Amino acid sequence: MKKTLILFLMAAVLLLSYGCSDQNKEDGQPDVVVTTTFIYDMVRVLSEGVDAFDTSLIIPAGEDPHIYQPKASDLALILDADTLIYQGLNFEGRMADVLENGTSVTESFEETSLLQEGEGEADPHFWFDIALYKSAMDTVCEKLSEDYPEHREAFLENKEAYFRSLDELDDYVEERIEEIPESSRLVITPHDAFGYLAANYDLEVHAPQGISTDAEVSNNTIEATADLIMENGIKAVFVETTTNPDRMQRLKEIIQSRGGSVEVVGTRDDALLSDSLAEAGSEGDTYISMFKHNIDTITDHLK
Description:
The protein is α/β, with parallel strands linked by helices.
């Protein structure tokens, strides 16, 4: 019943917005519609030097995909897309039904390559595993090559050049993590977005919230996190750009009430980028600059 209602609303939106979407295509270009900033950056890299389509982003930079509620204009873009690419693994939690006819960048992932949370729920934050990010980019490259075959060679050349940059990024991350004493490699964040980072780079992560921000956090969980910080002498906890900083401030208050101290990192311009890249023109507005921003921030405050 729910899916039938959604499909009915989608059809109504498409009819109401048909004139608007026609205006969006006045240049005659096909429209590649993507859900997240990570996929938008993949398409940007792959299509460098290619004038084959326009790219539209559904979830703006800085918004939380876990809880993003699509607008009528978003549904119109999705329904009228020539190419639709989304992340999957329930990352776009409130949009799943309207994305079924698109291509998921995670569709080729082996189940064993994914981290699991709870009873069989895969952690969707795969982009902190560079190998998985490459695999996702392979899928995007294949889809673009299928839909725009005359540009296949350009897509492949751009991908191979970029993969070399990702290998250099991997080396950079390893070198920076080595600066942190092993006893200090505990990263505390609001929600559990950095599991793949920890698994690949000898870090430990802990978050009061699970892998989705669309969940409640109990006072007991906050207190237990404070215990962990005190027991391990952790110097800093980190705010994320797409989460409410109040939880980290609450942790700081609890620790101070116990006679301890901890720095809350991210109240200015140094919040970690977890579920979204930064806005265009800001530090962290590409995948590589986002990764370096996070690693530099973590290392500089824990070493």
